Amino acid sequence: MTEKTPPPVIELTNLKKRFGIGDAAHYALDGVDLTVKKGEFIAIMGPSGCGKTTLLNILGLLDGQVEGSYKLNGQPLESLSRRKQSHIRSEQIGFVFQSFNLIPRLTVLENVALPLLYKGDLKIKRLKKASKMLKTFHLGEREFYMPHQLSGGQVQRVAIARALVNEPSIILADEPTGNLDSNASHIIMEELSELHKKGNTIIMVTHNPYLTTYASRVITMLDGKIDTDTFHLPSTPAPYSEKIPLNKTESEGA
Ligand SMILES: Nc1ncnc2c1ncn2[C@@H]1O[C@H](COP(=O)(O)OP(=O)(O)OP(=O)(O)O)[C@@H](O)[C@H]1O
Ligand SMILES: [Mg+2]
Fold this sequence. Notes:
- By secondary structure, the chain is α/β, with parallel strands linked by helices.
- The protein is 27% helix and 24% strand.
- It has one domain (10-231): P-loop containing nucleotide triphosphate hydrolases (Rossmann fold, 3-Layer(aba) Sandwich), CATH 3.40.50.300.
- A hairpin with a 6-residue loop joins strand 1 (10-19) and strand 2 (26-36).
- Helix 4 crosses helix 5.
- It is globular, with a radius of gyration of 19 Å.
- Adenosine-5'-triphosphate (ATP) binds next to helix 1.
């Protein structure tokens, strides 16, 4: 019994994020306490402006100007140099965000292979991996397209494939299915589910109550604070073909 339990993946204590100064100061996060263990799949909900994206940005080390404490894998944020932070970002964290930018001059395949560069694998190996990922997202036939030749939903799926290609252990997703039809949303949720089953930690913001059925824990936020925090066993979601309004905030009369 000497084995130490690993620290939580994420530990926030009285975390605050202020925008603006003086009279214009506003706390987008106003005292968040949150502990996330490895392998949790958390869905975060809450009204527009309550601080969900701000929270994900901080968790993903995109914004370090905070009050309170943030420990990532037991290490306080302030003890991590910028270099170390960007290393962690590229190796361990996958962002699936609302605004996706593909590089216009690269093919779809090259775009997806990009995050693998840092590993120093040979190009052929990187492209093979990227190709496999694209197939998962049913985009195998679009490998050699340029981004401008894709539909908006396809761009989004390519960007998600790119975010997941290096198998990040922490996945931060901000409305990952926001602009997608139910079929494309299904592919993405299934992939996130798969990653969850493999033991990865997922934190997903969504306005869609139906998508919370994939999660093992549902957090609601209000005015920069955590309002409710509920653990549950992820249920097997009904097939998407059951006409669930995936792109709407209201569903099932909620
Ligand atoms: N860069 C910024 N400068 C000033 N205020 C900001 C900035 N980013 C966010 N805010 C403010 O912080 C609050 C929380 O914003 P945030 O984007 O986190 O909301 P959200 O919960 O993600 O909303 P939505 O559901 O609409 O995406 C809002 O009041 C917003 O105006
Ligand atoms: Mg947001």
